[in-house]
Amino acid sequence: MRSNTISAIILAAGRSTRMGANNKLLTPWRGKTPLKFVCEAATTSECDKIIVVTGHQQSQVLQAISDFEVQSEHNPDYKLGMASSIKVGILAARQNNSEAVLVLLGDMPGVTREMINEMIFAGQDHSRDKIIVATFQGKRGNPLLWPKKYFDELSCLKGDKGARQIFSRHEDQIVELELGAGVLFDLDTPQAFLD
């Protein structure tokens, strides 16, 4: 798997229901918004294409990332949950002739360029069938690297649980990669922004 065949899919369509009136992706944290942290990490990584899937507050999200060279794809069904955004991202990755996708969450500012690159290099070190899962102290987090072999299954996901729904079918193909606390840290609530 070569790095120039990998598309990063940044999921940025959610409604941030636990944040109250604010969109967590656009709320300042340590000088930037969570989404800017994630876009910076992805656009400076070894990924070939960066796909940002929008939904809730599309125009504000696009404005917030206008400085980045990314491919934006709108998910009109974002209210149905994360799976609908993954589906949109996979369709775009297919159109980019991607051999794999790295799925990133827009509310995880602790995921760095170095972590993303380590995921990509791990994908190169293993067979094309291996799913690379970021971990911290043995606990699985995000991002996830999915080879093309799984695109059909990813496109059939439903609900708000994301791609983990299909882990149980492919446990023997999962490679866990210890990366650091950032793979478990997300900004979901007003309290998280104060910590």
Could you name the key traits of this structure?
Spore Coat Polysaccharide Biosynthesis Protein SpsA, Chain A; alpha/beta; globular; 195 residues
Structure report:
With 195 residues, this protein is an alpha/beta fold. 28% of the residues lie in helices and 22% in strands. It has a single domain, classed as Alpha-Beta Complex (Spore Coat Polysaccharide Biosynthesis Protein SpsA, Chain A). The protein has six helices and seven strands, in the order βαβαβαβαββαβα. Strand 1, helix 1 and strand 2 form a beta-alpha-beta unit.
Order of helices and strands: EHEHEHEHEEHEH
Class by alpha and beta content = alpha/beta
Per CATH, the architecture is: Alpha-Beta Complex
**Share of helical residues:** 25-40%
- Let me know the largest β-sheet: 7 strands, mixed
Number of E strands: 7
